[in-house]
Design goal:
The chain is an alpha+beta fold. The protein has three domains: about 80 residues, no CATH class; about 60 residues, no CATH class; about 100 residues, PH-domain like. It is built from eight helices and 13 strands. The strands form three sheets. It has a seven-stranded antiparallel sheet with strand order 10-9-8-7-13-12-11, covered by helices on one side. Strand 5 and strand 6 form a beta hairpin. Helix 1 crosses helix 4. The protein is globular.
């Protein structure tokens, strides 16, 4: 989401053991900066480097533990496009790089207010602080104490315990998903909020209340589709602020599980 590797499921290495084939990995540099997941406009003439490597030969796998294979895989798949281009200095020369990042960035680094971020061309604004940052010619962040979205995300996640004490709102289309027939039924535009350990979704004639303790399978797909399972049904929301909802729900559920 923010320019570095995501968590790799441990089950991946079990497949390595099962199929007993050579394990070849491909690590990219530049793909995120060329077309970030949240971006509304791709970068023309972006640079993409592909690096292939044989991580394990098939005959090696039998004698290696799952834990060792997993540790090697995680280490070899690490990447950070911002670190890479800080050294590589490829000129992306973006014109509308910032558009869409306001859907994933929800805390202003200057005043720590939430859901006050907006964008225009390469510029990032806070409703209270004005222009706070911009993407430079290398697609790095200028104007803040850090130059990348990885650190920005770490900063905003630290604010989640305080944000979660308040009512948090968003709005978007709500769907009921049939996972057997691969169809979805549009329920309408929902005014949503998270408060008191529940997600509320108000449509024109009905309000849904989801107890976060009973919600499973929380996922963010595409740019803004938040989906989850609840009482043997699957719901999907196309939200304006998907990332803050994902982070708050995960925080509340983890806090509950940890006692």
């Amino acid at each position: 989401f923010f320019g570095e590797q995501s968590e790799i499921p441990f089950s991946t290495v079990k497949l390595f053991k099962k199929f007993k084939l050579d394990v070849v990995i491909c690590k990219t540099n530049g793909s995120y900066l060329s077309a970030p997941r949240w971006g509304e406009k791709t970068t023309h003439n972006g640079l993409l480097e592909l690096n292939f490597k044989v991580l394990f030969k098939a005959n090696e796998l039998e004698n290696l533990s799952l834990e060792y294979i997993y540790e090697r895989l995680v280490e070899e798949m690490k990447f950070n496009d911002f670190d890479w281009n800080r050294e590589r200095k490829y000129l992306y020369k973006p014109k509308q790089r910032a558009l869409g990042v306001e859907n994933y960035l929800y805390v202003c680094p200057k005043c720590l207010s939430h859901q006050t971020i907006s964008t225009d061309k390469n510029d990032i604004y806070c409703k209270d602080c004005g222009r706070i940052a911009y993407f430079n010619e290398y697609s790095l962040i200028s104007g803040l104490d850090f130059d990348n979205l990885v650190d920005w995300d770490k900063l905003q996640k630290k604010q989640i315990p305080e944000i979660a004490k308040e009512e948090v709102y968003s709005k978007g289309l709500m769907y009921l998903v049939d996972t057997i027939k691969y169809r979805s039924k549009k329920l309408g535009v929902a005014e949503t909020k998270i408060f008191n350990n529940c997600l509320y979704a108000r449509l024109k004639h009905i309000e849904y209340v989801f107890d976060l303790d009973l919600l499973t399978g929380l996922t963010l797909t595409k740019k803004n589709e938040v989906s989850f399972d609840y009482e043997e049904k699957t719901y999907l929301f196309k939200l304006k602020d998907p990332m803050i909802y994902i982070d708050i729900i995960n925080y509340i559920k983890e806090r509950k599980n940890n006692g």
